[in-house]
Amino acid sequence: LFPYTTLFRSTADSLGTEIAMITGRGGLGKSKLLWEVACLAGSADLQVRFLAVGQEPVAADFDLLPRTGSLVLVLDDAHAMERVAGLIAQLWQARPGTKVLLAARPYGKVELESEIWRLNQAPRTTRQWELSDLTHMEASELVVGLTSRPPHDPFTQQLAAVSRDCPFIAVVAADLYKR
Question: Is pLDDT above 70 for 64?
Fold first, then answer.
């Protein structure tokens, strides 16, 4: 997860770029990754907040956001939200300088780019990352790191094979294995 902490730090530090987007198909682990990275990246000078799925914030909710340091607001499952541009505009009115990280499935990318245009920003100027399935090598490294078993061990190889398209399987299986 360590390399991904730059996701929040670079989003927070980007001059002129107030919106970033991460896309990946459902079940790939975007939400889990974002949560874990937010826990690692958060500090006194960088705070990360998530908008709860299905929450429709009201003006008073924006008053509860931290007033000091850099702030990154994560809109997880942004492809399922309505009026994203309106929400971001209201956020920026209450807390200027806040960076926004949109996490979405690939089919929602075009609509979110339209929302970015509504904010008078060009989508091509936003930082964007795309998560895809793990390679077999990456899945094996994940399993080795979680279980401390050798890379060529049959258990490692089998778990890596079923975890390529859903890394969360490896996390749960490793937890069960350690018990």
Answer: yes
Pairs from 142-148 (Cβ < 8 Å, separation ≥ 24): 142/167, 142/170, 143/170, 143/174, 146/170, 146/171, 146/174, 147/174, 147/177, 147/178
Residue 52 CB neighbour total at 10 angstroms = 8
| Amino acid at residue number 4 | Y
Residue with tokens 């060009």: 122
Q: Specify the amino acid at residue 35.
A: W
DSSP letter string, 87-153: HHHHHHHHSTT-EEEEEE-GGGHHHHHHHHHHTT--GGGSEEEE--PPPHHHHHHHHHHHH---TT-
Instruction: Please tell me the pTM assigned to this model.
Output: 0.77
* Count of helices and strands (H, E) across the chain: 8, 5
pLDDT tens digits for range 21-61: 999 988 877 887 788 777 776 666 788 889 877 888 888 88
d(CA 115, CA 65): 23
